[in-house]
Design a protein that fits this description.
By secondary structure, the protein is α/β, with parallel strands linked by helices. It has a single domain, classed as 2-Layer Sandwich (Beta Polymerase, domain 2). The protein is built from 3 helices and 9 strands; from the N terminus they run αββαββββαβββ. The strands form 3 sheets. The protein has a 5-stranded mixed β-sheet with strand order 1-2-5-4-3. The protein has a two-stranded parallel sheet with strand order 6-7. The longest helix has 15 residues. It is globular and about 60 Å long. The model has no long low-confidence stretch (mean pLDDT 90).
């Protein structure tokens, strides 16, 4: 496995060169971090370069790095992480890119390179608010059409903003403000001397 990773790392370094911002080998996998400006060109190189030949995008997800590992945020907050597979060479690589603007996170769409990116990018847009420029049909995929906000962001309120229910009188679904009162739950600690029959 180590020799295969060495070969993959050498091929990535040769094909991408200085455009690699960071390359990490951990637990038998390689993660390549690139700049947003180079993202689409690098993805195309990963797909088309014969020494790499990543024919399939098997996953793409959004990430919110606010309070990541309970540490202060260093650098951009939002990222897209893609898992690529080469059937020809039987290897994988993880491609990571950070959106440069936290107020409006935007990245290039990979749908022209891999059609499987379509629903993955819609999900990242819906849940994290990452805009994929060039996506032909970027709209919500998991939340409702009238949903406000992006629920996987770490600053999204746990109770949400609105709730929906079916109203028998009007015979339709209605939206209303959340009726659940927020409360803080403190776990109870049992400090009995003979708890559970122990002496």
């Amino acid at each position: 496995m180590t020799q295969k990773l060495d070969t993959l790392q050498a091929a990535l370094t040769a094909a991408l060169g200085e455009r690699i911002r960071r390359l990490v080998r951990d637990r038998g996998e390689i993660t390549v971090t690139v700049a947003a400006a180079d993202y689409l060109a690098i993805a195309q190189t990963l797909r088309d370069e014969p020494a790499l030949k990543f024919e399939q995008l098997i996953d793409l997800c959004g990430v919110d790095y606010a309070d990541y590992r309970n540490e202060a945020l260093e650098g951009p907050r939002y990222a897209a992480v893609s898992q690529l597979l080469s059937i020809t060479h039987n290897w994988r690589v993880r491609l990571k890119v950070h959106a440069p603007d936290d107020e409006l996170p935007a990245l290039a769409s990979l749908t022209e390179l891999w059609s499987s990116a379509n629903w993955f990018e819609r999900e990242a847009f819906d849940l994290y608010g990452i805009v994929f420029e060039g996506h032909a049909d970027l709209r919500r995929i998991l939340t409702d059409y009238g949903f406000i906000g992006h629920p996987m962001r770490k600053d999204f309120p746990t109770s949400g903003h609105v709730e929906m229910r079916y109203d028998e009188q009007t015979k339709r679904v209605i939206y209303q403000p959340v009726s659940i009162e927020p409360r803080e739950i403190v776990p109870r600690v049992v400090r009995e001397d003979h708890y559970g029959g122990l002496q």
